[in-house]
Amino acid sequence: MLPVYLDNAATTRVRDEALAEMMPVLMQDFGNPSGVHSFSRAARHCLDTARSRVASALRCRPANILFTSGGTESDNLAIRSAVLSFPCRSGTVPQVITVRTEHHAVLNTLNAYAARGLISLRYLEPDRFGRVCPDEVRNAVTSETALVTVMAANNETGNLMPVSEIGRICRDAGVLFHTDAVQAFGHIPLDAESLCADFVSVSSHKIHGPKGAGALYCADPKRIRPLMFGGMQENGLRPGTENVPALAGFGKAAECAVSGLDAKMGAVRVLRDRLMESILEQTGCASLNTDPDRSLPNILNVTFRGVDGKALLLLMDMEGIAVSAGAACAAGSPEPSHVLLAMGLSRQDAYSSVRFSLSEFTTEEEIERVCSVLPDLLRRAAF
């Protein structure tokens, strides 16, 4: 039985090139990059190379890249920095504007700040594909707005946000803009500076790099307000000895991801669309939560009305096919996807939804296998 992994939006396997980049750092160039001897200099060179590669993938300067442990830390650091650096008038708190379809790394951070009275929180209501109109952002910004945070592409549906337009609105208004680009990075071309973003969060393990590595693009690193305090690593903005092996793998994965990006993701889109067309042709219960014309090429989110989503996931797993119901960080929650609910789906339809996420390593044979077994599995999982 051919195993099929279609949960790449949750995490990806480490690509061979990234692993090959990591092994010498683990075994030979293992020095502390803050030291002065030859072992440390070798580790520092690996770190500098990784930073340059991530910066090149984001089309920015290496000095604007701050290494973190991943997307969640990057999101937290961006929000904290924007809020703490905002000059509030006496008796007021800074406002943050966001969307209910954001990742929990953003939403839960903002909710924690709001619960402590540190910010006022303004949610913009999304359309049926989870998007907000840039004019809604323009109308929501006030003199007390410290930050607008809107993700580049949704991690559950793959739908793209108009982040460049939102970034320009924020820049014109003198408001900081953060975009969580964790899911978009390495799947569509990204130019941090053209986004007019002050902060951009990216992560390694979504692009076939190792877990535990990420980065925050900072247009002005002086705005950063550290989450931790300690040594002078990352210019004192993110203390603690750097995870050089993981960051080396991250840098190589970023370099590989953007090399030939259009051709690779074009091939992935063909496979994604083949799966989509098969689902729509073979089943009468499917509706799309992914906008095929304005989405990442590798994600497809489908509601199978009248189907027990959890049962379907288990049946597919028994067939050796790995898919998910939504974000991995929400796995085990009794609640349906907050993204789909915000998009207007009923709780039942949200429970009946499945995310398929491909990668550049997904094959036509794997997609054909899913297409062949899915109709029977849907019948077996029906209410």
SSE topology sketch:
Blueprint: E1 4-5, H1 16-27, H2 38-58, E2 65-68, H3 71-84, E3 95-99, H4 104-115, E4 120-124, H5 134-140, E5 145-149, H6 163-173, E6 176-180, E7 199-203, E8 214-218, H7 244-258, H8 261-282, E9 286-288, E10 299-304, H9 309-318, E11 321-322, H10 338-342, H11 347-351, E12 353-357, H12 364-381
Parallel strand pairs: 1-11, 3-4, 3-5, 5-6, 6-7
Antiparallel strand pairs: 2-8, 7-8, 9-10, 10-12
Helix pairs in contact: 1-7, 2-7, 3-4, 5-6, 8-12, 9-12
Describe this structure in words.
With 383 residues, the protein is α/β, with parallel strands linked by helices. The protein has two domains: 4-13 and 260-381, Aspartate Aminotransferase, domain 1 (Alpha-Beta Complex); 16-258, Aspartate Aminotransferase, domain 2 (3-Layer(aba) Sandwich). Helices cover 40% and strands 14% of the residues. The chain is built from twelve helices and twelve strands. It has helices spanning 16-27, 38-58, 71-84, 104-115, 134-140, 163-173, 244-258, 261-282, 309-318, 338-342, 347-351, 364-381; strands spanning 4-5, 65-68, 95-99, 120-124, 145-149, 176-180, 199-203, 214-218, 286-288, 299-304, 321-322, 353-357. The strands form three sheets. A seven-stranded mixed sheet has the order 2-8-7-6-5-3-4, with helices on both faces. Strands 9-10-12 form a three-stranded antiparallel sheet. Helix 6 links the parallel strand 5 (145-149) and strand 6 (176-180). Helix 9 packs across helix 12 (364-381). The mean pLDDT is 95.
Residues in helix, %? 25-40%
Number of domains: 2
The best one-word shape is: globular
Sequence of strands across the biggest β-sheet: 2-8-7-6-5-3-4
Q: What's the overall average pLDDT, rounded?
A: 95
Radius of gyration: 21 Å
Order of secondary-structure elements: EHHEHEHEHEHEEEHHEEHEHHEH
CATH architect. name of the largest domain: 3-Layer(aba) Sandwich
Q: Into which percentage range does the β-strand content fall? A: 5-15%
Give the number of DSSP strands. 12
Here the CATH topology of the largest domain equals Aspartate Aminotransferase, domain 2
The top level CATH class name of the largest domain: Alpha Beta
Give the distance, in angstroms, between the N- and C-terminal Cα atoms.
Answer: 27 Å
* CATH homologous superfamily (4th level) name of the largest domain: Type I PLP-dependent aspartate aminotransferase-like (Major domain)
Described by strand count, sense and barrel closure, the largest sheet is: 7 strands, mixed
Query: Helical stretch count?
Result: 12
Taking pLDDT < 50 over at least 5 consecutive residues as the criterion, the unreliable ranges are none
Structural class: alpha/beta
